[in-house]
Amino acid sequence: MGVDIQNFIEGLMTALHPMNILWVLIGGFLGTVVGMLPGLGPATAVAVLIPITFGMDPTSALVLMAAIYYGAMYGGSRSSILINTPGDGSAIAATFDGYPMTRNGQAGQALTISAIASLIGGIFAIIGFILLAKPLAAFALKFGPAEYFLLFLFTLSAIVSLSRGKMVKGFIAMAIGLMLSTVGIDLQTGVHRFTFDIPQLSEGIDFLVVIIGVYAVGEVLYNYLNLDRLKNKNKLGKKWITKDQWKRSKWPIIRNGPIGFLIGVLPGAGGSIASMLSYTTERQISKEPERFGKGAIEGVAAPESSNNAASVGSFIPLLTMGVPGSGTTAVILGAVIMLGLRPGPLLFEESPEMVWTLVNSMFIGNIILVIINILLISVLVKILNTPPRVLYPLILVLAFIGTYTLSYSVIDFYILVIFGIIGLLMKLLDFPIAPLILALIVGSDMEQNFRKSVVAHDHIMNVLLASPVTITLSILTILSISYPFIMSWVQNRKSKQADAA
Amino acid sequence: MNKYLFSLLLVIAVVLTACSDTGGSDDASEFPTDNIEIVAPASPGGGWDGTARAMQKIFDDENIIEKNMNVVNKPGGGGEVGWQYLKDQDAHTFAINSSLVITNNLLGQSDLTYKDFTPLAILTTEWISVAVAPDSEFDNGIDILEQLKEDPTSLKIAVAPSLGNNDHLAFVQAAKEYGVDVTQLEFMIYESGGDVVTALLGDHVDVATMSVSEAKEQHLAGKLKMVAVGSNEPIEGLEDVQTWKEQGIDLEFPHWRGVMGPPDMSEEEIAYWDETISTLVETEAWQELLVNNEWESYYMNSEEATEFLEEQTENYNQLLKDAGLID
């Protein structure tokens, strides 16, 4: 499409309209808040606000809903970092190193870097949007069942690096996650699998319920067992990051903005996949992988840059093709259709000013959000001073509320409690949790795409070799699985040589 | 302390009696006496939810119903969860429905049929289209059917979100009319209409069957080519697309949505909904909603809706048998 300077400036002017700035502010703040609460994600927030957008100008409605979306990307990591309970799927990766940083008394710095990383990732993605929206949309279309299958497989291969040191336990957790992902109606045949005649199970087990159960409820139960030993020794630490921390985070942020953006553009992937992939990529290419999981600041920066970029990227298929790239954009699509706007291939030609207003408002919104989020840090870290007997019941309440808003079903409460107990057991037995969650997130899509791709390409080998994309992904997957083993082999050899010398 | 407690109890008792008094007299004279609840048996964002929220808004904005109204989302099981919930409510609750209330039962996925409820109205319909890639060799629906007649497995057909739904059955019916062995057809099932569009745009399937609203913009932009629609008459704004009838296939396939109430509603209650809903569908706001969503008015009152559902049940039974989904 090229950058149409005139439309761009017009869009900037509309975005700077006080009313639109107000919507960005409201949306961004609201998004940050719901993002922080476990289970209340951007999709729910947008859905609840649909009645408010009735009668609004479609452009303003779009600006507001987009602000909620990326606001939630900022907010989601807050609770991951402070209390080890991710607000939604794309904030899981922030728990891996964010929570250990809090334990090390660096909560303030973790929150700061996550806000800065989100900002830079978001800005990268907006620039990418301006320059590359159309060609990227065309590229995303090339992703058929075979490509998606291999992308999910590649994501899943990250389990090897997530389970380092406890490989067998990691694979057990993954197997449980994959099994759980088969619950529900099988799309290709319409057969009900493991639903036990409970209609609520027919759409599968929502991975968000599992996340809330394993993380939030599991964490509360775990702390309950250790209540005597629990002391408020958490310091907030410094708020501002040190030079050394910035040096460590700089490149991970810059690398993972584009990665997250590209994954966000794919209609079949999204923020959860983007942040997981970014985290594991950084861990694998790091010179000191042993620091990860123990409070490495780059382990917070990378996924945060990535998931915010993905949220911007997911607007590309929506605005260029009318195809939602994530759960949240699907709700946004439904809402703007009600307003008489039909995003599709004609939107760029027919109402370019709307697209450019949105893009500009995202730019403004990201800057507003980084300010809001950094200002909020001093308030948020107070959570750490809250006595456990107040904090943990509160988390439990929020967990149940969040769960109920997912599908308004009481059955989910039982699932929540069951996974809370599973989460507790996993913690006690020292099982890694991430492989289970990751397998559950990608499992169902991976399976469906695999089966569609076998139908389309007739044979499994043809699936692997279907296109340059699948070949690249196959190679990356093999590398990702074998990399840790090769590395340890090389190190062994080195140390042996050193011994010999 | 006890004194306070006693007076408090007294106040509560008085208030409660007062309430039940007025409630009782209202009950006898006019329905509704309570807040209205609209059940959307799906998550926010889809057609069911959109219909429910639009009804709520227009009923309220146009002062058709004075009572408060709430939309509750009860997603799961292709409507099953919401409809199970409706079954135990009183006449102040109604739910959105579609052909799934018939096919879920026929496919053995549910015990409920429309007979377990009180059909109140059919409201809207969408039409279902067949589309191909713009550079496809097919220029009309018949060419596709001709090839499928020779080799039913030669084309990959995209549909969402499940076998046995309208998008799927509309294609099956057209193919059957032409003499294709429909049990052999190769369908690829995607999660949503948006995924079907993406699959077709990316050339991952040969043919797609989906609602007109999902394909229209793409067709107008030349990104894909609609080659047949299941409506009676050509669709406004899409006059270049021939209906199946114009192509010689006797087929009219509405993808309708309606509303139904709990079982055992009184005649008076049914009459109330007939009156309010018939007013609703006449409003300008409703007409605008239809245009925005590419829906068409398909209004039938409670009596007509009941007959229509009976007719549809027979029709679907036959179609599912033909498709080889049931014996």
Q: How would you portray this structure in words?
A:
The complex is a heterodimer of chains A (501) and B (327). Chain A has 501 residues and is mostly helical. Chain A has one domain. Chain A contains 22 helices and 2 strands. In chain A, strands 1-2 form a two-stranded antiparallel ribbon. The longest helix of chain A is centred in the first third of the chain and has 35 residues. Chain B folds into 2 domains: 161 residues, Bordetella uptake gene, domain 1 (D-Maltodextrin-Binding Protein, domain 2, 3-Layer(aba) Sandwich), CATH 3.40.190; 103 residues, Periplasmic binding protein-like II (D-Maltodextrin-Binding Protein, domain 2), CATH 3.40.190. In chain B, strands 1, 2, 3, 4, 5, 6, 7, 8, 9 and 10 form a 10-stranded mixed sheet that branches. The longest helix of chain B is centred in the N-terminal third of the chain and has 28 residues. About 4% of the residues of chain B have low confidence. Classes of the chains: A mainly alpha (501), B alpha/beta (327). Chain B: It comes from Piscibacillus halophilus. Chain B: Belongs to the UPF0065 (bug) family. Chain B: It holds the Pfam family TctC.
